[in-house]
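Quick entry between incubations.
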Amino acid sequence: MSERIAVVGIGATQFRTITPDVSYKELMFDAAVRAYDNAGIDPRRDVDTFVTCAEDYIEGTSIFDEYVPDQLGAALKQVHTITGDGLHGVAAAVMQLRTGRFSLAVVEAHSKASNILTPDGVAACAQDPVYVRPLCLNSHFIAGLEMNRFCAESGVTPGQCAQVAVKNRGNALSNPIAGQAAKLTLEDFRHARPVALPLTELDVAQSVDGAVVVVLATESRARELRTKPVWLTGAGWCNGSPNLETRDWASPKYVTTAAAMAYKQAGITDPRHYFDFAEVDDTYTYKELQHLVALGLANACDVGRDVELGKTATKGKRPVNVSGGALGMGHMYECIGLARLYCAVQQLRGEAGMQQLDKARTAVVQAWRGVPTASAAVLTLAT
Amino acid sequence: MAKPKAQSPKSEVQSPKSAPAAPPYHPIAHGLSDDDFKHGKVCTTRWTADARYAWDRGVAIGRYLDGLKQGKLLGVRCAKCARIMIPPRAFCEWCFKPVDGWVELEDTGVVNTFSLCYVTWDVKRVKEPQVPAVIEIDGASRGMGIMHLLGGVDPKKVFCGMKVKAVWKPAAEREGAITDILYWKPL
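Done. Structure below.
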């Protein structure tokens, strides 16, 4: 069996709705400098391999991987870019480290969402060009379809989904880097503009700019560094079928399968009672609830009630998205999962400041790539 | 678009006698013309992407472009590796540290490499070639150049190592873009 893998460094910029003062390279550089300082390493000397996560259409530049090395200290070193969430990048880095050929890896993801003038036009390009695009629908319609079916099968109500936004955006008020913190009430949802009902504007995570860099190491390398390692005990990923016509709208099986892969590596047989807290994808409010069920952390029939009763609140039995999630910190395209991981590592290290949980020894982190995808990645972490 | 040449498909290619019988070989020959595509005889699904962007210039590019508007070429220097770099960047990619200051450079330089291009960016053939060149800027470290166009010169007489000077747009027409320099001419 190859060595254990640890997170040994994390760095993030502020997440802000606009960042006109910095280029995307300068944004990435800022997160990288923080992560390398956090790990106590010199990227030019110490890092063996770099993985970045970006989508050309989001960046507006084809073959975007060509433009990433300089700002990460990766020029003339081993670099590759994945068109997937940051957690897919972590999984790729873990595999590289487990080959035994590398001992220190860097994973980066970022968002310059404010530079996309036509985000809905770019999102439309992800729809199937034959079966879906001719219908000329805004891509949020897919979330509307999914929310309706999920609610119909589980009994979850739109009001319970709204409670997720109230919780997460409220949590973000104590997260110093969050970009979409707000004190909401359920009353606000009564006046929220409809997007693709039952989905309202307040059910949708709003975009921010920002970057996150994470440093991973093999156990022997981690022991040489000054930081306290957080063990990455499992990494899984999975893609469902892309067809809207035939997918299971109530249950994202790809999340369950990705989780099963990670749990097996970590030896976790009872996820419901294993994790102290969870950081999961909440691009849309209902998604947090749907993902908790798919991850095996809740029953579909209870998950809506759990959020109402505060079981997933910061002071609840098992907190979910204490960081604020994507709803509270902001939607960051391929960086959403890495933002979840950044905050989970802070918790596990005991460095989460005002957000610090009393009990934070184990965590599950999950990412989804947004509509119209059926693509997820899951990590399990422990101190 | 050039009209594809129609080809008559060959039925089969004989296998060498010593080798086992190969499956029938069909050379790629669709026999379709431009008109067949234009008149809908070939079924396709079309989509025009609405993908538009406005990239933040940031610290380094922003100041560089402001300099161009003023008719100046600005570079940056790294105190650690002692390089003077252009185009400027906020950090030195080799030393991985922020740069240490700005330097105004000459608007003269030397052609590092060039090409004579007879096909334009929108795929048109031209008789007079465009001449893109990498110009190493005087005062910057060796190998530090900017990407631009040569002009006012017989393309046949361009050579690596040729000394050149920027030809600027009139000040009132400059807008803070690399096109504030019209082209580079022999010095």
